[in-house]
Fold these 2 entries.
Entry 1:
Amino acid sequence: MVKAAFNNIKIAAISTVVPSKSLSLTDDPLLYGGNEKKIRRVIDSSGFLKRRVTENDVTSSDLCYQAAENLFRNTGIKKDDIDALVFSSYTPDYLMPATSYVLHDRLGLSENCVVMDIPQACSGYVLGLYQAAMLLNGGCKKVLLLVGDAFSKFSDMFRNHTAPVFGDAGSATLIERDGNADPVFFDIRSSGKNYDALMCKNGGFRNPPQPDMFYEDGTFKYEASMDGGRIFSFTLEEVAPCIKDLMDFALVKEEDIDYFVMHQANKFILENIAELLNADVSKMPMSTLTEYGNQCGASIPCCIADRLSAEIQNKKLTLLLSGFGVGLSWATALIKTDNLYCSGVCDYVKEK
Amino acid sequence: MEKEQIIEGIKDLLDTEADLNEGTVLDDIEEWDSLASISVLAFFKQKMGLKIEAQALKDCKTVGDILKLAGK
């Protein structure tokens, strides 16, 4: 396992953007064959209800771009001062080049800038913060971390009406070097043996596009699939111990933590994790998933923006961040915020 | 935890009116689905500290098979 502590990094600002189009589980007459009792049970136990989805011509990078522009405009931070851009997503614009280069161009950042993509979803925010921390200790002063996903693009996950739970979202976070910052702690873990538990099989070079990989309406068969039972059992087994280990490493107790900001996987799993941690469930916000769906990598910053934006700007908060999912991957961070700028969740405004 | 308590627990989780016993075939229970199965995984973990593999539970045909997973 990888444990790390950094004494010189500070999260300065968070900005998030979601598409304005909202869908509800109650709107889909074909969900679970229209079995109302079952739909009600799913909504009650999973916590899912609404989700935001992009239009066909809007990608996760568009959402992240707007989140970044909002961040620059609202904080006054100069684009020229950004010396690293990290983009984390599983829904990139192109196979080549990395989407971070496209965003580097659109945002008009300096050429004195390290640019990279991290293909990751549910743990992408924590992994991105970890990468940012390493960049800041490798010569950079200000890192722009863009994390966003648009899983609604994996059309075949939705067309059989079984798992319409993913919501699209983009986020921008500014992390800077600050010698007076409180320490930030990380614990990062991976299980490659479960790489096929959440997978999109087609479209890469192992299974390149073939004529038989299209539905009749012309949409591509990504063969995106999720082994829900396996992921649930993994999460139940691994996430809480990883959080406990990090708390021990950082010498903090449950009562020292203001909020457990979890990847908004679903209410059922979060309640179970809270129970395994003996954590006060009121310190674990989860209504973000009801309002916006499982936003993959952007769910942690969106949860902060949705639920904590007012509080976080006025007082120091100790936050435990936990991301887990595709990979399989699970990653925990402990941060102390200080004057963190955070707007609420903003709707995407179509570019003119 | 005794067999009867586990069966009662499963009945609560499923929120079913069906009469459950060791011989009950899971596929015959209207409420038995993927959501029910993860509830059972969570039940074993939280109430008995047991780790059950999702695949092992998927392979169960009857309520009795689930009890065997719990060592009953």
Entry 2:
Amino acid sequence: MATILTLKRRIKAAQNVSKTTKAMQMIAVSKMKRAQEAVLASRPYVQKLISLSSKLSRTVEKEEKHPYLQSKMATNRTLIIVLSPDKGLCGGLITNLLREFLRLSKEEKEASYITVGKKLEGQVAHRKNEVIASFTFGSTTPTMEMVYPIIRIIDEYYIGEKVDGVKVLGAHFTSLFSQTPKVTTILPITVMEDLEKDQQYLFEPKLDTLLPPLLKHYLEMTIFQLLLENFVSEQASRMLAMQNATDNANGIIEDLKLEYNKTRQAKITSEILDITSASIGATQ
Amino acid sequence: MTLNLEIVTPEKVVFKDEVNEVVVPTTSGEIAILPNHISLLSQIAPGEMTIKKGGTQDSLAITGGFLDVHNNNVSILADYAIRSEDIEIAKVEEAQKRAEKVMQEKASDQDFALAEAQFRRTILELKVASKRRRKI
């Protein structure tokens, strides 16, 4: 009868797992929805900002380009910002990010790192890289407050000419079912060439005073968008992983229940057999 | 002739409509934009902006950002903007008190800066809102 007891116990355990994963899945769904709304809400703003920045930076003469737009190419070093979730249980996302990080670190031999998120923090430090700063990612939708300290460090290294460029490694949200790691170059800023050139624009105050705050703001929004995208990817990935886990747990529960019932049946049958054979023996 | 005005913040599109005149505070002084204005790029200073459409007038509290005028399209990228009719005076006053309290409590530099920004914004919002009340 021990098997029946253990089977019962195993069914109970599988049910608990399925409940937990189901709850985690639901949490991931609601977090993802909220973050997605934030992305959608800021989209018109970002589009306007991009068009404005490209308009402005096009008008600037080559010689007097703002450092954000043109790298000095003095050090041959790159600053890489590695984004990762704080928590695991999100499918292959972290492994994929790690793989991309290893590839990138081979490519960029001379690099300094900033990590955001605990999952890759140890991995980056472990490989004898220079880690300037580590931030946690948090488990709620990223806010603009997360961006400012990062910008401060970027400014110190990039404007201080300690690095040539700044890249961000993070998850790219292609769809609900696929999130791939992606490396984005955020500095120097590359602006797309628009069709309409040679427009006469009036700048008030002068362009030199107007451009720096605009570009800085542009940089802030870019980083913020990347953080948001990383967060949405994390939640989407977790949602999927947890859904699979719930399905698997339910599958196991079904199998175990079948086995449990079979064992129970077998036990009853053998008992009946015992009784009948005993009674036949008694009457004879 | 009308202007296509669009005011967007990172949170949402605050205003999108055809208007006759826009008055915005910029870092180099307040300017009024009428249709057929020359292409202009400017930085917005915190303050009150006014939108005139037909005979009606609408006020907004704005805390800085950028202004782009081109081909009768006016785009305003604001850090934060709120229309006067959306300002809830009670809530703003409460926020003001909260900010004041934090500033008095000698909080950390960061908290103080945040509270100060909040305080300034509430003053601005109250100013814009009181104007509307007087009109009514």
